[in-house]
Amino acid sequence: MTIRNPLRDHGQRYRPRIACLKKVEKVLLEMQDLKTGVKSQPQRLVITTIPHAITGEDIISWLADRFQVDTQEARSFGSMLVALGYIYPLQDHKRLVIKPDASLYRFQTPYFWPTQQWPVEDTDYAIYLAKRNIRKKGILELHEQEHYNRLHKWMNHKWDFIVMQAKEQYRAAKERKKPDRVVFDCQERAYWVVHRPPPGTVSAMDYGLDRLIDPNADEMIFTQQSIMRPRVKSSVSIGALVKYCATYNSHDPFLSKCLPSNPWLTDDVTYWTLNMPYVEMPTKMRVERWTFSFAELLSDPRGRNDFRLFLKKEFSGENLAFWESCEDLKWGEAATMSEKAEHIYKTFLARGAPRWINIDGKTMEITVKGLKHPHRYVLDAAQTHIYMLMKKDSYGRYQKSPVFKETVKKAICPEEHHFTDAQLEQNAKKRRPSLSPIILRQMEQEQRAKMAATVDITQVMSKLSKQRKEAPPPPCPPPCPPPKK
Amino acid sequence: MRSPLIPEMATQEVQLNETLTHLKTESETLKSKLEDERAKLHDVELHQVAEKVEGLGQFVMKTRRTLKGHGNKVLCMDWCKDKRRIVSSSQVTHFMLLKTFMLLEHAVTMPCTWVMACAYAPSGCAVACGGLDNKCSVYPLSLDKNENLAAKKKSVAMHTNYLSACSFTNSDMQILTSSGDGTCALWDVESGQLLQSFHGHAADVLCLDLAPSETGNTFVSGGCDKKANVWDMRSGQCIQSFETHESDINSVRYYPSGDAFASGSDDATCRLYDLRADREVAIYSKESIIFGVSSVDFSLSGRLLFGGYNDYTINVWDVLKGTRVSILFGHENRVSTLRVSPDGTAFCTGSWDHTLRIWA
Prior knowledge:
The structure holds two protein chains of two kinds. Chain A is mainly alpha-helical. Chain A has helices at residues 21-31, 56-67, 71-84, 122-135, 142-154, 159-174, 178-195, 220-228, 234-248, 263-266, 270-274, 284-290, 294-299, 301-313, 317-331, 337-349, 361-370, 380-400, 402-410, 421-429, 437-469, and strands spanning 41-45, 48-55, 87-89, 104-107. In chain A, helix 4 packs across helix 5, helix 4 packs across helix 6 (159-174) and helix 15 (317-331) runs antiparallel to helix 16 (337-349). Helices cover 11% and strands 45% of the residues of chain B. The chains are: A mainly alpha, B mainly beta. Chain B: May interact with RGS9; this interaction stabilizes both proteins and increases RGS9 GTPase-activating protein (GAP) activity, hence accelerating the deactivation of D(2) dopamine receptor-mediated signaling.
């Protein structure tokens, strides 16, 4: 693994494998086209004439035109080109952004492009700093001075070589014509601003951690299996995706109004208060979601409670209880798994079990066999069977039941908020942190304990009163529908 | 490679090379056969079906909160199920819990740099995180602000390389992790036991996402080998694989119905894969977008896809029509992480500019 520990590499920041660079280069070539590229002209800067200078506003308008985007996006794109070092500013050279005015820029020579194969070595940087030092003492900025001192320390053993190279480059530069020298100095300076950025600036060369690449292993068997895999026609599956969007469109806070208001926009938390997990009266939108799919009903705690109430009235509450126990087994702790499996068997599956569930013979056989060596997925077949039963039968009847109709009637439809600016300010001032989930969990546990206690008492009481009135009818669960395959 | 001294070894080497080439050609043939099979049932394109769908209006999405507090690059964040709290982690030794209206609740120091993954437990009472330490640790949360959370931490996952992503399953008891060592794994939190491991990626696995509840028991992962794999959590088998990206896949996210997933890659595109049709059905790209996507997420209805990019912007896509709806500016460095809140009312982005932003 080639993760480079930043503490040990003495600043050797190797050439990054940034995927976008090849695409950027294509854009750069287009930009430099004599006929269709960004228009350039020689510009006078102080006493020298710089050839092929381009203005910021020209770059931005060229990009906006080329990619058919607005100025803001073109400016953002242009700034990335500067940040990567393909274009450099002539004035204010340390700020690698595009200014939308007559500020001057030039295209960087390909020798200094970031895609070059060689890494940006500290040796080169040391030579560059030394060269500048030779030209004029004290010209180095503070951070450059610090780099220089650090490199001098780490590269002490080859410092003679570095100074020699610096002197040689300085001498060779003096023999060039003045305009060429000025241009080269600008290019080189820009290169080092990109690769050794001043402190406190964002560097586009910063790419995070290195990654590892390996050639592919053997995957032929997998491909063969994939070929045999059953597929659905695109029109069917894509149709389903489109339908899903349409169904949930009015429930998506980004697409439709959030009633009464989106808390992030108005700082009013009524929306969240009305939609707490175990609220007494749910909102109409929430109840509507329960009708979209069985999974929606089950995943909402309030919906599941409603469904549980309905099942109790139908005397088929054991199905839901069984499903919940299976979920608990699947996602629970490994340590208590065997005990849980045992408990589930005794409660739901064994002959004469107190909450016996009705599954077909074959599934029962597989399940009981699997329970001899329980693992977390041992009840999968039974769970799926019961889930499908509830989905195809109970769910439909639930939606037509008095329990559901009652809930729909009681459901709230809050009025939309219309806050004035002054009220919004007030709301912002009244922001408070919400209850910690830890406290909420404690409260939930207390509530569940209370509910379990009340249920027992009422059952006992009703039994006692019935015994007093008449002989109690034998407990007789309604005939179960034939199990679906 | 040193040239063999013995002639027999030379012939063996040549034979080996021939076998490898032969295998490679066979592999290529099989792959193109797979593409042919996939194409047989492909009778319509997504944008064709979407033509009948109403277009989206103009969007006004703005930063509603800016959260400063990390002194360093924000690498990852996750929402709590209560829709208001988040946990975020950064480049240098911290993860932070933030109450979103919005104050710093807790900052925890971790003994490693680059905490690349963090996740909130479904109960909201614990968080998990990890990174260059190759581990994923779970920290039970406390009501006491001054308590040292690091003292109670549990080391759960152990990989042989950096941890790139982690996620709790449907309970606080299990964690799914992905790693730079090329594998994903399912762990029991209490005991730290490895429950299942998933092998199949040929390079670093960078991201993962669990399927929504009803379709349960599967998850998707994306890696540096340009592949997005769908796995069966029970058997550890890879059940579907998609290889259409041209570069590392940085982020994968399921469509809310669980029948599709989106991916974001260094090749500057986001793509939508339909699991039932077993193919890629949309590419979200623009000529002017050339910088990699670091993270993606869907809005509640699945109509919008939000992507955080390495050029500091966020692009919002119309999933059905394939067009870009909006581009958002604001961050001053790479957007490294993006998640929509559990009730879809907002999304949060974390960036290398040390801040997190909530957009709505």
